[in-house]
């Protein structure tokens, strides 16, 4: 059974406990630290969008279609549907001669509450541009345009775009592409179950790409640079990803995924991190990742933007403090 990584208190009692597993690995696949079962395969969900974006650059598509640094960040993003996201994705889509209807991801309300409330007050409806994965999908469409193949069905696992994506993921994570279990993500694109330690290795290779082929080495370096430079484009205002990247002041980039997955790239140390909370709780994944960054000395515990996710207060509807979310004793120190 995986250890308890995060606790939620109410008064003096631990009310809820979140179990999970964490792998910290280097680019060769050596485990630097581990908690729980890191051999178990997990669906990374949006936490490996950076790997999914590699073919966009290494194929030459990004250069041919003048993809900007902003847009590379959006290709890695689970954005909040704010104006800064929607307008940029829309402009990129138009430049590759595609329309909102070409996106395979379905519409949903902006994840940024003020934007969602404004939309509802105006009587507007969300479109596919508001989907948090619209940047990733526009990257897929750009690759299809570059390959001069049909954009229709680009999200299917057997489409040439997804074949290239699966190959890149398999090579980065040191797994067999033809043996990866396939699931369909919330945005309709394929997702692949990967052992947690291999996912951490894939993240490490993004930050330490020295032994990758030249085209992939350049792709990895450009994606990490864009991710680091534009944390709010990769996530959104007040989101944990943006806060943790900014708190680390260049030492790491992080990415959340649905169902309690979180990844991190630490270029200076050559490490990658992958974690999964068993019950899928995002709140626990955010606290666990904040603690891991402190343990790996990528960020300081007293940095306000990290502290708000490391020890957030539990409050009632009157705003009174009634408990806290905190790392468990299992995360008190680095585990081997």
Task: Give an account of the 3D structure.
This protein has a single domain, classed as 3-Layer(aba) Sandwich (Beta-lactamase). The model has no long low-confidence stretch (mean pLDDT 97). The two termini are 17 Å apart. α5 runs parallel beside α7 and α12 (240-247) packs across α14 (304-310). It is globular and about 60 Å long. 39% of the residues lie in helices and 19% in strands. The strands form three sheets. Strands 1, 2, 3, 8, 9, 10, 11 and 12 form an eight-stranded antiparallel sheet that branches. Strands 4-7 form a two-stranded antiparallel ribbon. It has a two-stranded antiparallel sheet with strand order 5-6. By secondary structure, the protein is an alpha+beta fold.
The parts where pLDDT drops under 50 for at least 5 residues are: none
- What is the makeup of the main sheet? 8 strands, antiparallel
Computed over alpha carbons, the radius of gyration is: 19 Å
Binned strand content:
15-25%
Total number of beta strands: 12
Helix content: 25-40%
**In CATH, what is the class?**
Alpha Beta
In sequence order, what are the helices and strands, one letter per element?
EEEEHHHHHHHHEEEHHHHEEEHHEE
Oligomeric category? single chain
From the spread of the alpha carbons, the general shape counts as globular
Decide which structural class fits the backbone: alpha+beta
Enumerate how many helices there are, as a single number: 14
Average pLDDT, to the nearest integer?
97
């Amino acid at each position: 059974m995986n250890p308890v990584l995060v606790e939620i208190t109410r008064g003096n009692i631990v009310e809820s406990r979140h179990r999970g597993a964490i792998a910290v690995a280097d680019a060769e696949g050596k485990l630097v630290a581990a908690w729980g079962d890191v051999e178990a395969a997990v669906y990374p969900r949006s936490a490996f969008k950076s790997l999914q974006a590699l073919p966009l650059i290494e194929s030459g598509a990004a250069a041919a279609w003048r993809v900007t640094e902003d847009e590379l960040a959006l290709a890695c993003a689970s954005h909040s549907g704010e104006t800064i996201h929607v307008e940029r994705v829309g402009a990129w889509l138009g430049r590759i001669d595609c329309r909102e209807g070409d996106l395979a991801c379905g519409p949903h309300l902006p994840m940024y509450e003020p934007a969602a409330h404004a939309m509802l007050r105006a009587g507007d409806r969300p479109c596919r541009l508001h989907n948090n994965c619209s940047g990733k999908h526009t990257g897929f469409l750009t690759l299809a345009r570059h390959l001069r193949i049909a954009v229709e069905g680009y999200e299917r696992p057997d489409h040439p775009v997804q074949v290239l994506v699966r190959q890149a993921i398999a090579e980065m994570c040191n797994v067999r592409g033809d043996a990866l279990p396939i699931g369909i993500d919330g945005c309709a694109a394929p997702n692949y179950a990967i052992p947690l330690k291999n996912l951490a290795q894939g993240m490490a290779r993004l930050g330490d790409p020295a032994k990758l082929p030249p085209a992939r080495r350049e792709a990895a370096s450009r994606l990490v640079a864009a991710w680091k430079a534009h944390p709010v484009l990769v996530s959104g205002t007040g989101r944990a990803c943006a806060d943790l990247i900014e708190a680390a002041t260049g030492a790491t980039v992080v990415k959340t995924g649905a169902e309690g997955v979180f990844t991190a790239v630490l270029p200076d140390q050559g490490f990658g991190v992958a974690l999964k909370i068993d019950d899928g709780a995002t709140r626990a994944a955010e606290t666990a990742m904040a603690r891991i960054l402190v343990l790996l000395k990528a960020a300081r515990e007293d940095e306000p933007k990290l502290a708000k996710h490391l020890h957030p207060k539990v409050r009632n509807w009157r705003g009174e403090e009634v408990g806290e979310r905190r790392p468990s004793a299992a995360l008190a120190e680095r585990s081997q």
